[in-house]
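Run log // design_07
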C-alpha cells in the first residue's frame, strides 16, 4: 500500500544518507537524454550516461550538483549505454568536473560518418585516461552492495533466464516485430539492478525487437519494482509484451518536453498490470492532458519553466522504496 508523505519531512530523499542506510538514485533532467546517478549502500557510485554536451555545460552542471547532493566525490563507474549525443556527449564535460574511475561501455561506436567519429573521438580521449570495462550480456558491473547484471549490450541479449524468470509469455502472440534497427539504440547496454528484494530495470534506448528477444516467447527477466522507461517513451520501444512482463509498480520517464512521452508508448506503460504511478521528468507536449501523469508526478511541468528539477528514489532491501519530486517535495512510498 502506498502512502503520500509530506515533503518537508522527507529530506532523506534529497540529502545524503549514512553509508549503508539505503540505495539511492537520482534521475537528473538532461532534457530528453539520460543521466541516472546510482549510489550504493556502500557509498560507491555509478552514473548511467551523462546527457548532452554544450548548452553552457548545463547537463554536466546538473549531474555534478546531484553528485554533491548525494555526497559523491567521484564516479566509480561511468556507464555509457550507447554512442549517441544525448547519452555519451556530456561525458567529457562531466569528467572535467568530477573524477571518473572506470568507464563502462559495449565497445566501439558502430555508427559511421563525421558526426559519429567526432563523438567517439571525444569520448575515447577521456575514457583513455581511466580504467575501461567492456560489458557483454551476463556480465556484472561490480558496484559494491548491489547486483548489477547486464542483460543487453552491443546488439546481443541474454539467452538464459535470470533467477526466477523463464516463464512463457502469453502476450507475445499479439505483438509483431518491427524492422531491424541498425542504430546504436539497438546496441544499448541494459541492466537489471537488484538490492535485496528491490529490482530496477534500465534498458537505455533499447528498441522494440531487442526488448521482445528478452521477453518472447519466454520472459527472461522477471518482474521489477521500477522501470526506467526505455528510449524516453518513444513508440519504437516498449512493446506491451515486454512492459507487461516486467510488471513494474512504478515507471520513471526520462523524457523531454518535446522528446519522448509519445501517447502510444505512454498508454502501454499506464496499462501495465499492477502499475501504480508514472513519474516524469517533463510534461510531454505530444502527450497532452490525456497522456501525461498528474502534475504532482512531473518534475518539470507544462508551464515551460524548466528549472532542471529532478526525481530521486530511495530503496531498502525489503523491497520498499520512495520516489521524490524535487520541484514540489512530493514523496510517495511503495
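design_07 sequence
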Amino acid at each position: 500500500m502506498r502512502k503520500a508523505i509530506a515533503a518537508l519531512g522527507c529530506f532523506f530523499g534529497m540529502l545524503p544518507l549514512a553509508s549503508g542506510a539505503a540505495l539511492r538514485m537520482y534521475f537528473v533532467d538532461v532534457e530528453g537524454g539520460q543521466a541516472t546517478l546510482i549510489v550504493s549502500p556502500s557509498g560507491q557510485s555509478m552514473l548511467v550516461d551523462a546527457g548532452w554536451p554544450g548548452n553552457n555545460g548545463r547537463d554536466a552542471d546538473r549531474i555534478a550538483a546531484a553528485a554533491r547532493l548525494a555526497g559523491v566525490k567521484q564516479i566509480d563507474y561511468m556507464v555509457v549505454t550507447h554512442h549517441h549525443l544525448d547519452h555519451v556527449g556530456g561525458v567529457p564535460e562531466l569528467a572535467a568536473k568530477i573524477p571518473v574511475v572506470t568507464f563502462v561501455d559495449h565497445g566501439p561506436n558502430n555508427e559511421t560518418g563525421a558526426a559519429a567519429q567526432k563523438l567517439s573521438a571525444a569520448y575515447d580521449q577521456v575514457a583513455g585516461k581511466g580504467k575501461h570495462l567492456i560489458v557483454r550480456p551476463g556480465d556484472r558491473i561490480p558496484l559494491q552492495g548491489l547486483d548489477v547484471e547486464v542483460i543487453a549490450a552491443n546488439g546481443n541479449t541474454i539467452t538464459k533466464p535470470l533467477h526466477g524468470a523463464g516463464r512463457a509469455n502469453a502476450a507475445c502472440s499479439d505483438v509483431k516485430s518491427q524492422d531491424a534497427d541498425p542504430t546504436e539504440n539497438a546496441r544499448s547496454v541494459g541492466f537489471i539492478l537488484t538490492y535485496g528484494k528491490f529490482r530496477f530495470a534500465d534498458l537505455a534506448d533499447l528498441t522494440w525487437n531487442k526488448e521482445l528477444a528478452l521477453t518472447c516467447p519466454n520472459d527472461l527477466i522477471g518482474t521489477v519494482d521500477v522501470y526506467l522507461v526505455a528510449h524516453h517513451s518513444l513508440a519504437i520501444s516498449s512493446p506491451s509484451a515486454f512492459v507487461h512482463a516486467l510488471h513494474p509498480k512504478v515507471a520513471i520517464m526520462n523524457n523531454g518536453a518535446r522528446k519522448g512521452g509519445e501517447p502510444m508508448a505512454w498508454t502501454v506503460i499506464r496499462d501495465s498490470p499492477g502499475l501504480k504511478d508514472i513519474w516524469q521528468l517533463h510534461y510531454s507536449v505530444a502527450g497532452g492532458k490525456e497522456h501525461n501523469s498528474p502534475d504532482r508526478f512531473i518534475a518539470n511541468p507544462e508551464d515551460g519553466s524548466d528549472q532542471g528539477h529532478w526525481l530521486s528514489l530511495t530503496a531498502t532491501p525489503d523491497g520498499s522504496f520512495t520516489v521524490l519530486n524535487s520541484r514540489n517535495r512530493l514523496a510517495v512510498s511503495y
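Residues 223 and 245 are 6 Å apart (CA to CA).
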